[in-house]
Amino acid sequence: MFEIIDLKSMRLSELQEIAQKMKISKFRSFNKLDLIYQILDYQAANPDTLKTEKKAVTPTTSEENSEVQPAGKAPKTRNFERNRGNKP
């Protein structure tokens, strides 16, 4: 069974694949959040049919989404505490 945190971290295309496997009608017309709730509603109505389907969907790895950083350079981070005082 999928949890809402897992579903929110997925891309819309991944959610549409899950919805298609669940045979949710008109899944392509939903936005991401509505599709998440449709999937959760389907799970609540059919709890025993989804135990094996979660294994079939694999989340994307961080290797696909990460950029190669040169050695010795750390990624830039923002200091939100410092920036808060700058607003007029």
Automatic annotation (TrEMBL):
Q: Where is this region: Disordered?
A: 48-88
Q: Domain (Rho termination factor-like N-terminal): give its ranges.
A: 6-48
A Pfam family this chain is assigned to? Rho_N
Annotated GO biological processes are: DNA-templated transcription termination
Matching entries from InterPro entries are given as: Rho-like_N, Rho_N_sf
- Compositional bias (Basic and acidic residues): 78-88
Q: What name has this protein been given in UniProt?
A: Rho termination factor-like N-terminal domain-containing protein
Q: Which species is this UniProt entry from? A: Capnocytophaga canimorsus
